[in-house]
Amino acid sequence: MTKQNNNISFSQAELGALQAQVQTQSKELARYKQIEKELLQEHSFRKAIIERAAEGVCVCHAIPIHPYVEFTVWNSRMTEITGYTLKEINIKGWYQSMYPDPVNQKKAQERMGQMREGKDLHGERWEVVRSDGQQRMFSISTALLTTDDGLTHVLGLMLDVTKEESYRQNLEKEITALKKIFPICSSCKKIRDDEGYWHQVESYIRDHFDAEFSHGICAPCAKKLYPEYYDSIYPPQKNKK
């Protein structure tokens, strides 16, 4: 490179080297843009999976100040089942909002402490309170995640199983009721309830087990009560005792 009359001139070799350097930098720039594009696509794909998951998906980590837990991931399903947005839950606090009862709140905090020591939750059922005051039953599963900066995060998967829990409890009550001994009249076959009242079998079962009856007539009774119609009601091939 030479300078004459304030003009800079380059030799052919220098120009060739500059052109090669520009080409190399252009290729590097194109490569970085491609990597950025792929990362954005991967991020969008992962975000779509989280957003469209049937479960509530969230990620949080501990912080030293109130509310002591901060969420960085909070999909739309979490908002649906809790009634809180990401911003709202980070202001109000997970424990403080979802477990307003001091006893339950303490239990939840103690269980989360165990979880951070490696005892993950696997479909554990916890009674929580939504933003609108409704009591709900959540099935919660967790896993610990550690990022490159050494920060430990908690991945949570949550399902609202309130209806399933109610059905399970009702089923257990019915099973318990079926296992007990029923006092039944040896003459009229009525059943006596726990308060001493007597009921027809049909009404007792309907009221206690959410069942309905349809009525027919068996062959022996039909023969006894309606002998003139017996053969037409129960032809020989259908006459079963």
CATH class of the largest domain: Alpha Beta
Question: For the residues shown, what is the average pLDDT?
Answer: 84
Known CATH architecture of the largest domain: 2-Layer Sandwich
Weakly predicted, low-confidence segments: none
* Rg, nearest Å: 36 Å
Count of individual helical segments: 9
Task: For the record, give the distance between the C-alpha atoms at the N and C termini, rounded to a whole number.
Answer: 117 Å
In this structure, how is the largest beta sheet organized? 5 strands, antiparallel
Number of strands: 9
Classify the beta-strand content into a percent band.
15-25%
Instruction: Using the coordinates shown, work out and report the CATH topology of the largest domain.
Output: Beta-Lactamase
The proportion of residues forming helix, as a percent range, comes to 40-55%
Coarse morphology? elongated
What number of domains?
3
- H/E element order: EEHEEHHHHEEEHEEHHH
Strand line-up in the sheet with most strands: 4-3-7-6-5
Q: Indicate the structural class.
A: alpha+beta
The CATH superfamily of the largest domain turns out to be PAS domain
